[in-house]
Design goal:
The protein is mainly α. The protein is built from 13 helices and no strands. About 80% of the residues lie in helices and about 0% in strands.
């Protein structure tokens, strides 16, 4: 990749890794649903003027229904589930589970779009889900924790969120092919905002959130969602979708680092081992890594 793309790649991983930290800081005062709703609303307010400025408003209106529905799967439900998860489990563990997004994407594409994987990708699915099972077995206790919620429900929420991402990716490929990514991104945030508005208002905290929560929301909405989308789209254009997708593997590195530095979170050797298994499986399932092909021996006559 050119130096500019490498810079975008590292910066995007660092930004998306920070989204788990900022969600954790916001959810303490606001709760999961208001945090998710304000995140997408702020991102929508940031992206919508860009769509209008680039003259993409007619395309957003033309494909509005499909984009809004996919936005519920691509942003609304996952953001709410991850906001719930980081209130119970560490941000590092949440980010590691988030790395399974391409894994679920490959599985959904296989089942829905009949995108049958080869030997390498099939092995990757098996290895990746084995890593998830090992990680969940260690940390997914369903005994009520100190916060009144069992960690197992938080782990399950992360996996449902990544499954939603996988479904949204296949739906985008099936119904929104050729639509500018900025239109899809903006429509996703708008659809998520509409869906989460009422639940967020219903669960709004009784006391006014502090300044730290509002600053965290601005950071996760503008930087980790709005600006991150722009970097991601530019990376796709310059380096290709396969290399852009690899950023998912680097995000947990930054998320774990931020959690250790700013939240005093603990990282175990088992978490790192399971993360390595998940990353290897995901790399195989997405085609970034391939098994060596066996050479066919011809018989000369």
């Amino acid at each position: 990749m050119p130096l500019s793309s490498i810079t975008d790649f590292v910066l995007l991983a660092a930004i998306w890794g920070g989204s788990f930290l900022f969600m954790r800081l916001a959810v303490v005062d606001l709760g999961p649903l208001p945090t998710a709703a304000l995140r997408v609303a702020i991102a929508c307010a940031f992206l919508l003027p860009l769509v209008l400025w680039r003259g993409l408003g007619p395309q957003l209106r033309q494909h509005g229904r499909k984009v809004l529905v996919i936005g519920v799967l691509n942003s609304g439900i996952p953001f709410a589930l991850f906001a719930f998860a980081v209130s119970t489990i560490t941000t590092g563990l949440s980010a590691i589970l988030n790395a399974t997004v391409p894994l679920f994407g490959a599985l959904v594409a296989w089942l829905w779009l009949k995108d049958r994987p080869g030997a390498s990708r099939t092995l990757g699915l098996v290895v990746g889900f084995a890593g998830v099972a090992l990680l969940a077995w260690d940390g997914a206790s369903f005994k009520t924790g100190a916060g009144g919620i069992a960690p197992g429900w938080a782990v399950l929420a992360c996996l449902v969120a990544t499954l939603c991402y996988g479904i949204a990716a296949s739906a985008t490929r099936k119904y929104l092919t050729g639509l500018p990514p900025l239109v899809t991104a903006t429509g996703s945030q708008l659809g998520a905002t509409l869906v989460l508005a009422l639940p967020a208002a219903w669960t709004w905290p009784a006391t006014m959130p502090g300044a730290a929560a509002w600053l965290a929301l601005l950071a996760v909405g503008v930087v980790c969602t709005g600006i991150a989308y722009i970097l991601y789209f530019r990376l796709i254009e310059e380096a290709g979708p396969a290399r852009a997708l690899a950023v998912t593997f680097v995000v947990p590195v930054f998320a774990v680092l931020y959690g250790v530095l700013f939240l005093d979170e603990q990282v175990t050797g088992w978490m790192l081992f399971c993360a390595a298994v998940i990353v290897c499986g995901t790399a195989l399932s997405t085609g970034l890594l391939r098994l060596p092909e066996r050479k066919r021996l011809g018989v000369q006559r």
